[in-house]
Design a protein that fits this description.
heterodimer, A: alpha/beta, 10 helices, B: alpha/beta, Rossmann fold, seven-stranded mixed sheet, three-stranded antiparallel sheet, 7 helices, about 15% strand, globular, binds adenosine-5'-triphosphate, binds magnesium ion, binds zinc ion
Chain lengths: ~260, ~290
């Protein structure tokens, strides 16, 4: 096994990552590093491979080639697909947090909000009901939901609240790296704006490292420090958000930014 | 001629019984772990304990003595028909006496009288997978067992407490076996869970529909799941048994007459009967 090489301060390094389902379908030649506290956006049109890449990073879609190296909380750097499955799954529910576009995929719809938030705590060994409940209530407040909804079922919540609940469920174990696939997709514009505000304040408060897929450039501008622009499975441009959006170099990005292409 | 019946001994052919015994050996070697087996068709519908019947058929020897209980009683239709089945196909001795039995097939209860290390208790199990309620996928539950990902079991208990103020699960209460596998003890009341801990008798479980075997070997650590601040507790009654006066057995509420009058009696009918008989003998002895 090669010793993983990871830039000294990086929390994640993606090296020549490739997962293809057909010619230029999926993702390939993906290279980037992510630093603590950084929010990286992945933008691009539908079918460009954003979700495929995110799934590779979230440990449930093994790339055909390349390495995804993560530095864990004790400073050890390891390819997430080189570690055994038990350790990978443990990392995914402790140090990683994955927020799905559709809250139904990220929540247990038939157990209460409190149990949804408490699950990861119980999964890492918390066995004190009172403590778990207190923490769950605190997190509900953190995502700006009333504490008295703790025993309500997710299906009783609006879409925006379900998404908040999903975020609380993920953040309760204080993950270091959060992966989000279109977290505000499918929501009303006003609900979206509030959720984005919340995500932004949580990110800075908790010093989270985030990789967020979006095809909304306004969302990217608001939240992301850096952007990767994908087209037909490849990253065709990357850089600081302002740079990419105000002075795009690649013709495709120029089209994207000038809104000639509406993704 | 004794031991001559129109069936192969205990109905199943020798090859099938051997296969099941092999599965049982594996189950004993890995306490609480579900072992798949090639279940056979039995001349009774699923839900009538085909899993338990196949296990019993596989382990019965000619000089075994069999007891069958259903809801704690030897006299229900199900118990009687399974006992008759083996009476006819294996020509083994059958009994209602817990102490005399070498093999006891059960649904819903573990006898009140402590079992010994020359007895085997066979459970007929409807749903062997304790994780099924939250995870429908078989490959995923297998992975969760393999990786000891049991956090979701506590999600269920959490929900109980959040909605009822206490752990409301009373039957099929999940246990952690030998510090490793989480297991569904079949629909026995949680009252019986402590009897599995360090049991002298071998406990075998057979699920017919889902074709799974599992086991708790004698003297195995069996812990009922709970929270530090909501410890596991067994059911308790204010009454004692109306027939034998027992204060520490599992009680059933029964309607005794057309006026709807109720009373609480031991669910273990043989245990209760024995205590009633002992009392009668005592009072006769006093009279003499
Ligand atoms: N499991 C799969 N099997 C076959 N093809 C797949 C699979 N997953 C993705 N693809 C294909 O890979 C390409 C990239 O899909 P992906 O879902 O990553 O795009 P995306 O950028 O997330 O799009 P969207 O914005 O619509 O979510 C598409 O052509 C898709 O059809
Ligand atoms: Mg997508
Ligand atoms: Zn009694």
């Amino acid at each position: 096994m090669k010793k993983p090489i990871l830039e000294e301060n990086a929390v994640l390094s993606v090296q020549s990552c490739q997962k293809l389902y057909g010619i230029n379908r999926g993702c390939q030649d993906i290279n980037f590093d992510l630093y603590p506290g950084e929010v990286l956006g992945i933008v691009g049109e539908s079918g460009s491979g954003k979700s495929t890449l995110l799934n590779c990073l979230s440990g449930n879609n093994q790339p055909d080639h390349g390495a995804i190296i993560y530095r864990d909380s004790v400073g050890m750097a390891q390819d997430i697909y080189e570690m055994n499955e038990a350790r990978r799954r443990l990392l995914m529910r402790s140090e990683f947090g994955i927020v799905k576009q559709n809250p139904k995929d990220g929540l247990r719809m038939r157990v209460s909000a409190g149990a949804n938030i408490g699950e990861r705590l119980m999964a890492v060994g918390d066995r004190h009901y009172g403590d778990i409940r207190t923490k769950a209530g605190d997190w509900l407040t953190q995502v700006e939901m009333p504490k008295d909804r703790l025993d309500d079922m997710p299906f009783e919540f609006s879409g925006g609240m379900q998404q908040r609940l999903q975020i609380a469920r993920v953040l309760v174990t204080r993950p270091r790296l959060v992966l989000m696939d279109e977290p505000t997709g499918g929501l009303d514009v006003s609900v979206q704006a509030k959720l984005l505000d919340l995500i932004r304040s949580l990110v800075s408060e908790l010093n989270l490292s985030v990789i967020m897929v979006t095809h909304d450039l306004a969302v990217a501008r608001l939240l992301c420090d850096r952007l990767l622009v994908m087209q037909q499975s490849r990253v065709i441009e990357q850089g600081l958000t302002d740079q990419v959006l105000d002075d795009p170099q690649h013709p495709y990005t120029q089209l994207l930014v000038s809104s000639v292409l509406t993704p | 001629m004794p031991n001559q019946s129109e069936y192969n001994f205990a109905y199943l052919d020798e090859q099938s019984k051997r296969t099941i015994r092999r599965g049982l050996l594996k189950a004993v070697a890995i306490p609480g772990h579900q072992v798949p087996f090639a279940g056979r068709e039995m001349p009774m519908p699923y839900g009538w304990g085909t899993g338990g019947v196949q296990v019993t058929a596989s382990i019965l020897g000619a000089d075994d003595c069999l007891k069958v209980i259903d809801q704690g009683s030897d006299d229900t239709t199900n118990a009687v028909s399974i006992r008759r089945f083996f009476d006819k196909t294996a020509l083994v001795e059958t009994t209602t006496d817990t102490e005399a039995a070498t093999v006891i097939q059960t649904r819903h209860r573990i006898p009140e009288q402590p079992l010994t290390n020359n007895q085997i208790l066979v459970f007929q199990v409807p749903i062997p997978e304790p994780l099924r309620f939250i995870e429908p996928s078989e490959s995923e539950t297998m992975k969760m067992h393999a990786l000891e990902e049991y956090g979701v079991m506590h999600v269920k208990l959490y929900e109980d407490i959040a909605h009822h103020g206490h752990i409301a699960t009373t039957y099929a209460y999940p246990v952690h076996v030998n510090g490793r596998y989480v297991m569904d003890p079949s629909p026995i009341p949680k009252f019986d869970n402590p009897k599995m801990h360090m049991s002298d008798a071998l406990l075998l479980f057979g699920a017919g529909r889902e074709k799974r075997l599992y086991a708790i070997p004698p003297y195995t650590d069996v812990k009922s799941l709970d929270f530090d601040d909501h410890p596991f507790e067994i059911q308790q009654w204010d009454q004692s048994c109306a027939l034998c006066g027992c204060e520490h057995s599992f009680l059933d509420e029964v309607i005794v007459n057309d006026e709807g009058e109720r009373m609480f009696v031991c669910s273990d009918s043989h245990f209760c009967q024995q205590r009633v008989n002992a009392k009668l003998n005592m009072s006769e002895a006093v009279e003499v």
